Amino acid sequence: GLRETMDETARRFPDAVAAEGPGGSTLTYGELDAHATSLAAWLRSENIADGWNIAVCLNPTVWLPVALLGILRAGDTIVPLD
């Protein structure tokens, strides 16, 4: 699935650009992996893990994939909002 693919990509290509945002901001796969892992750990520490539905309403920046991957890693479901 998506989580496994991202984990493998981050392991193999940690310095490759994973996301580009407005103004030239970038995030590497290694940075994406680290931030998503931190978010998942925070969700677990707040007992928001393993089956919660998490609403996400973010502008398309480099932080959107961090949020999505972190939520998936916590075992939760993404509910995209427009």
Describe what this molecule looks like in 3D.
It is a single chain. The protein has helices at 2-12, 29-45, 63-73; strands spanning 17-20, 26-28, 53-56, 77-80. The protein is globular, with a radius of gyration of 13 Å. α1 (2-12) packs across α2 (29-45) and α2 packs across α3 (63-73). The chain contains three helices and four strands. With 82 residues, it is of the alpha+beta class. The chain is 48% helix and 18% strand. The protein has a two-stranded antiparallel sheet. The protein has a two-stranded parallel ribbon with strand order 3-4. β1 and β2 form a beta hairpin.
The level of helicity is 40-55%
Order of helices and strands: HEEHEHE
The pLDDT mean sits at 93
Fraction in beta strands: 15-25%
Supply Rg.
Answer: 13 Å
Distance between the termini: 25 Å
Number of strands: 4
| Cα shape | globular
Sheet having the most strands? 2 strands, antiparallel
- How are the strands of the biggest sheet laid out side by side? 1-2
Q: Which stretches are poorly predicted, pLDDT < 50 over at least 5 residues?
A: none
Query: In terms of structural class, how would the helical and strand content be classed?
Result: alpha+beta
The tally of helices reads 3
